[in-house]
Amino acid sequence: MKTVLNVIWLVLSGFWLFLGYLLAGVLLCITIIGIPFGIAAFRIGVYALWPFGYTAVERRDGGAPSCVGNVLWLILAGWWLALAHVFTGIALCVTIIGIPFGIANFKMIPLSLLPLGREIVRTDQPFATR
After folding, report:
1. DSSP string of 29-93?
2. What is the reported pTM?
3. By CB count within 10 A, which of 45, 58, 91, 97 is most buried?
4. How far is CA 44 from CA 20, 49, 54, 57, in A?
5. How, if at all, do strands 118-122 and 54-58 pair?
6. pLDDT per position in the chain (130 positions), as tens?
7. Do 105 and 83 form a contact (C-beta atoms < 8 A)?
8. How far apart are CA 125 and CA 109, in angstroms?
9. 54 phi and psi, to 5 degrees?
């Protein structure tokens, strides 16, 4: 079932969201300071491409650097990526078939706003540690 949902997601919104995260990652990787943010954008982009079967969990070892990084991320890229999720979610919720995919878009907004200090894991092992 996850594969069917992921294929439908890919066609309806996943590919375009992936391109947005890819663009953000490339722009952020231009400077040395932005490389960690670019890597986070690439990581979330892959999650936005194929989200069903995975979930985002909070990492306990993030600390203060993740908090500061999240503030910078919010200013540099987070707000417009979150807007992409909002608009895509609203567009998907117009049809009955698209409602679950719109809800999935809305669930990705917190991750797009504050990605640092989070890890993407499979849903069958949400408490697995590295």
Report:
1. TTSSTTHHHHHHHHHHHHHHHS-TTEEEEE-TT-HHHHHHHHHHHIIIIIHHHHHHHHHHHHHHT
2. 0.84
3. 45
4. 10, 9, 11, 12
5. antiparallel
6. 788 888 999 998 889 999 999 999 999 999 888 898 999 999 999 999 999 888 888 888 878 888 898 998 898 888 999 999 999 999 999 999 899 999 999 999 999 998 888 888 888 876 655 5
7. no
8. 22
9. -130, 160
